[in-house]
Design a protein that fits this description.
Distance between the termini of chain B: 79 Å
Strand order of the largest sheet of chain B: 2-1-3-4
Number of helices of chain A: 6
Shape of chain B: elongated
Structural class of chain A: alpha/beta
CATH architecture of the largest domain in chain A: 3-Layer(aba) Sandwich
CATH superfamily of the largest domain in chain A: HUPs
Distance between the termini of chain A: 51 Å
Largest interface: A-B, 15 and 23 residues
Structural class of chain B: mainly alpha
Strand content of chain A: 15-25%
Number of domains of chain B: 4
Oligomer: heterodimer
Number of strands of chain A: 11
Shape of chain A: globular
Helix content of chain A: 25-40%
Largest sheet of chain A: 9 strands, mixed
Largest sheet of chain B: 4 strands, parallel
Radius of gyration of chain B: 29 Å
Number of domains of chain A: 2
CATH topology of the largest domain in chain A: Rossmann fold
């Protein structure tokens, strides 16, 4: 089975994010980058699917962005992906990733996926930076394949008259799960936490150097259908109130507040 | 005859040997040496055929010569760590040395070329000298025999070693025949009989040596001289195929030599915090496992080491090691366990063979958050701001390194804050780095070279960028890792543990009286850095010191090292509970620590085994800061220049 995993490179969790001079984007000059967390889980699910199938098949990792995203692709190769496809976009200006909306990014990725003709496409359900949650599902529409979202686990089903099928476990609200059967090819957006991620190893890094990393040109940017008007940092709304007095008094006040103000008791 | 004076003692020797007996002697010697060589050959081949130690250097020769003199010739470690059997062993060893001349002469005599004139002054002296040693050896070996076969300490293994009994018997016979020859007629039949018995015992003894633990007679002087000079010294991984100890092909000549030198005394196991609390790991069996592996597969084998054919070499055992180094410290024959244990972990982690929920979580936290506790670095920023720690800008003398515990752990933060108060009171200028990442200690000890290398490089760069010249920190693990393990990637600035810093200022620290303090030696400060007196000097300013049963070099681990603080629940009894009970048993009102990991382990342990009124638990910096608080009730003064 051939699986394509589409990943995104996002700023590190602890990064200090500054608004760029145009007021409509983020200043990227001083950021440290990492793999989007749900995408890391998508990669893990793909690797485990391949391992469960006895190691046959191929896991191709796909990422769009400037040169820097190759570190994320290398990381994916080190963790076990077989090869990488890098859709190269300019660092900044016309055609840069930040200038494109979700539809346009999905087009870029779908184009690259089409060339691979995989059985399954996996991607994180959303990105840690923008969190639109659209790239995956739009991609599925563009590719004309069925999709499922919020997926925790994928299982390949045996037999069935030649049509390969999968069974996926979706996370609903409040601990409820839904199990869905789908025909292949399909696209799934993966929820974080379904698997245990693996750590990068020295052997993996060394092997990754030998693996193929193909650069694919990016189509010119399409006209945006979604326009960003303004980016602003969050304003502090949290209020801390110190309760004073004896332990008994504090406990009484705390219960009162939890019951009548916060209304959780 | 009994009454004769000692200077009248003559060693009876046979008269001239007929040719037939000479031929017999030659045949016996050839047979003995032949079997000896035949049995030694595969061992020599296994050692020689193993991978070369690319990091080996004879330097520092002076240290090696000294270690050889002290540990081999003086038997200092053997005696110090197990006084009674140690002394008995030393007598047997020194007796052998004293006997070398007698033995040479004894064999030469068989060919009619004896060179010691037992009638002369030197000869007379030497006969008596050797006789005294013969008595000491005979008594000692008899004592060791009783210990092994009657007392049977469990460290010697559950199975009684028959060969040890045979060897003891042979040594006893060697001495007995020598002593008996003092009391028979020179040149008589009895003298001839004793000569032959003595000779045959020698010739039987020799071929037994290879292939048994008595090989240490031959190998251990060499092993002690050649061992790696640094404690827990880990070799650099070389080339693209080296991931640590994955298979036999990764075992080096040094490891092989040490494995064959093991005398199976079990000191390593006796002092191992894992073995003694009911875990699978047994350091002696690890060494013997490597030895059997080599015996069965030879050097250069592709067979895996961990979870392969050797039951002792299990993944579970390898990851139970706290890297406290008691084994390596105790070993009398120069076996260095840590490069093997950590080497096996490197092999498992660098190839991804080790799968552990907690281990993976730790590695991912170090990868993503850059600290072992998996906290957001913003938490450290807040802590620094709240404590008003100045940011290091090159103008201050010291960079105060917080470490993961000092940055994120509540108790670690208290320790750092108190140490900062002490520095402020002493008028020492210090600053902290704006951002810190873990030194890589847990990654290093767990064998994750990729992660450790990344963290080491980032750390070195951070110090270079900030222009740091001197570092002081509360954490012995950080000190060791930065000062020693980072050397693979560059040279860290000058480093000091806070105990060393405070000890230099001990005369300025407030004097406190009225309580007993028991100081616990952290492994990474004591055995790893040889710092025992400084923290005691500091603790002594705050009260009267008492000692736990095991202290200084023999201190018992708290259970946190080797990355184990971050792994799951341990099997068997908790190491921290055993140590906490020992500390409580001293009756001291306060336990003094000098490592934030020991502190956090004991904090939990005291809750469980501390009894009704557990002792206070304070870092030595907190002990000092407590005195400052008392003193500054009158006036907020700076100590020092007054």
């Amino acid at each position: 089975m051939k699986i394509v995993v589409a990943v995104k490179q996002v700023p590190e969790r602890d990064a200090v994010v500054r608004v760029a001079a145009d007021g409509r984007s983020v200043d990227e000059s001083d950021l440290a980058w990492t793999m989007n967390e749900p995408d890391a889980y998508a990669l893990e699910e793909a690797l485990q699917l391949k391992e469960r199938a006895g190691g046959g098949g191929e896991v191709v990792v796909l990422c769009a962005g400037p040169e820097r995203v190759q570190s994320t692709l290398r990381e994916a190769l080190a963790k076990g992906a077989d090869r990488a496809v890098h859709v190269m976009t300019p660092e900044s200006g016309e055609g840069a990733l930040a200038q494109r909306d979700s539809l346009d990014v999905a087009r870029l990725l779908a184009e690259a996926v089409r060339g691979e003709a995989p059985d399954l496409v996996l991607t994180g359900l959303q990105s840690d930076d923008l969190g639109a949650g659209q790239t995956g599902v739009v991609m599925a529409e563009l590719l004309g394949v069925p999709h499922a979202t919020l997926v925790l686990h994928v299982e390949l089903m045996e037999g069935g008259g030649g049509t390969p099928k999968i069974r996926v476990k979706r996370e609903l609200e409040d601990g409820w799960m839904q199990h869905v059967e789908m025909v292949l090819p399909a696209l799934l957006t993966i929820q974080s936490g379904g698997n245990r991620l693996r750590y990068a190893t020295l052997m993996g890094i060394k092997k990754a150097r030998q693996k193929e990393m193909r650069e694919a040109p990016a189509a010119a940017a399409a006209k945006r259908v979604v326009e960003v008007l303004k980016v602003s940092p969050p304003t502090r709304v949290k209020q801390t109130e110190m309760l004073t007095g004896s332990a008994e008094e504090i406990a009484t006040k705390l219960v009162e507040k939890l019951r009548f103000e916060v209304k959780v008791l | 005859m009994i009454a004769m004076a000692f200077y009248e003692l003559r060693l009876a020797e046979p008269a001239a040997f007929p040719l037939a007996e000479k031929m017999l002697l030659v045949a016996a010697i050839v047979a003995s040496l032949g079997v000896f060589a035949w049995r030694l050959r595969p061992i020599a081949r296994n050692v020689w055929g193993s991978k070369k130690d690319t990091d080996f250097s004879l330097r520092p020769v002076g240290t090696r010569v000294w270690t050889f003199f002290w540990e081999v010739l003086c038997q200092a470690k053997v005696i110090k760590q197990r006084p009674l059997p140690g002394l008995a062993h030393a007598f047997v060893f020194w007796g052998f040395l004293a006997f070398a001349l007698v033995t040479l002469n004894h064999v030469a005599r068989g060919f009619g070329v004896g060179f010691l004139q037992y009638a002369g002054a030197f000869g007379t002296f030497y006969v008596v000298f050797a006789a005294v040693w013969a008595l000491l050896v005979a008594v000692s070996i008899a004592g060791l025999f009783v210990r092994r076969f009657v007392v049977r300490p469990k460290w010697l293994g559950a199975k009684v070693s028959v060969e040890s009994g045979v060897i003891a018997g042979l040594i006893f016979w060697l001495m007995a025949t020598y002593l008996a020859a003092l009391f028979v007629q020179d040149g008589g039949a009895a003298a001839l009989g004793l000569w032959w018995v003595h000779t045959l015992v020698l010739l039987v003894f020799l071929p037994i040596i290879p292939g048994t633990k008595h090989l240490h007679l031959v190998l251990s002087p060499l092993t002690v001289f050649l061992k790696r000079p640094e404690f827990s010294q880990l070799p650099k991984l070389e080339g693209d195929e080296d991931f640590g100890l994955v298979a036999g092909k990764d075992l080096t000549q040094m490891i092989a030599l040490q494995a064959y030198s093991c005398v199976e005394c079990g000191r390593c196991t006796e002092h191992c915090p894992a073995s003694t609390t009911g875990k699978v790991l047994n350091p002696k069996e690890i060494v013997l496992g490597v030895r059997s592996y080599l015996n069965e597969n030879g050097p250069g084998s592709e067979m895996v080491l961990l979870d392969g054919a050797q039951p002792a070499l299990s993944m579970e055992a390898a990851f139970e090691c706290t890297t406290c180094g008691a084994c390596e410290f105790q070993c009398p024959v120069g076996v260095q366990h840590l490069p093997v244990l950590i080497g096996l972990r490197r092999g498992a982690v660098n190839t991804g063979a080790w799968e552990d929920k907690y281990g993976t979580k730790l590695f991912l936290a170090l990868e993503k958050q850059g600290n072992s506790l998996g906290m957001s670095s913003a938490e450290r920023d807040k802590f620094i701001a709240k404590q008003e720690f100045p940011i290091f800008d090159g103008s201050q003398e010291y960079c105060l390194w917080l470490g993961c515990m000092g940055s994120y752990d509540p108790k670690g933060r208290e320790i750092v804050s108190d140490f900062a108060r002490v520095m402020r009171a002493l008028g020492t200028q210090f600053g902290v780095l704006k951002k810190e990442k873990c030194t890589g200690d847990p990654a290093r000890r767990l064998g994750n070279d990729l992660l450790f290398g990344d963290l080491a490089e980032q750390g070195l760069k951070a110090f270079a960028t900030a222009g740091v010249k001197k570092i002081v920190t509360i954490c012995p693990h950080c000190v060791r890792t930065m000062a020693t393990d980072w050397q693979e990637y560059g040279v860290a600035p000058e480093l000091e543990h806070h105990s060393e810093f405070m000890a230099r200022h001990a005369h300025l620290l407030p004097k406190q009286v009225g309580e007993n303090i028991v100081y616990h030696d952290p492994c990474y400060l004591g055995r790893y850095r040889d710092v025992y007196d400084e923290p005691r000097t500091v603790a002594a300013t705050a009260g009267d010191l008492v000692e736990a049963e095991r202290h200084r070099e023999r201190s018992f681990c708290c259970g946190a090292g080797g990355g184990l603080a971050f792994l799951g629940e341990e099997s068997g009894e908790r190491v921290s509970h055993v140590r906490a009970k020992e500390l409580v048993a001293t009756g001291a009102q306060t336990i003094g620590t000098a490592c934030p990991f020991c502190n956090t382990m004991f904090r939990d342990a005291l809750g469980a085994v501390g009894g009704e009124a557990p002792p206070q638990l304070l870092d030595i910096a907190q002990l000092v800061a407590r005195g400052l608080a008392e003193r500054s009730e009158d006036a907020d003064v700076t100590i020092g220049d007054n």
